[in-house]
Amino acid sequence: MFKSINHIGMAVPSIQRFLEGTQAMYAGFSRSAIIVNDRQHVREMFLSDGKTVIELLEPMGDRSPLSTFLRRNPEGGLVHIAFDVEALEPALAEIRDQGGMPIGEPVPDIAFDERRIAFAMVAGQIVELIESPQTG
Fold it and tell me: Cβ-count burial of 38 within 10 angstroms (0-12 exposed, 13-18 middle, 19+ buried)?
């Protein structure tokens, strides 16, 4: 059901400032273009060393779900780990069975070619589930 870790999500106040301040660590990583995600009220960029992917998430105003987190953590930090799953409904059911709680409804996401994603709270941590492309 849970196939692999897709990425690690980090909230930052500014993607540009984060990249400037961490040049020594991330200069050699590949970078995606910045994605403006109006549905989630974030700007996002993916960094990768070829094995691990980090999603940088910058809020777009107070409606962003990251705004509260960044008020408590002004420098930013880890906000979620994302998992690839075959299908969202069975994965969410398993999370519920383990005492976790879905956060909101599954929605298509621009950053993943409109594949559906869902968030859940599991053992005090936020996880993102990314549904595999549906065939047929």
Answer: exposed
Could you write out the DSSP letters of every residue in 67-114?
HHHHHHSTT-EEEEEEEEES-HHHHHHHHHHTT-EEEEEEEE-GGGTT
* Range 2-131 classified under CATH 3.40.50.300: no
For residue 131, the SS3 value is: strand
Specify whether the CB–CB gap between 67 and 11 falls below 8 A. Answer: no
- 5-27, pLDDT tens digit by residue? 999 999 999 999 999 999 999 99
Pairing of strands 30-31, 116-122: unpaired
Where the chain has pLDDT below 50, the residues are: none
Kindly list the domain boundaries of the chain, sorted by start residue: 2-131
For β-strands 2-11 and 35-37, DSSP reports them as: unpaired
Element containing residue 24 per DSSP (H, E): helix 23-26
pTM, two decimal places = 0.93
Sign of the dihedral through C-alpha 108, 109, 110, 114: negative
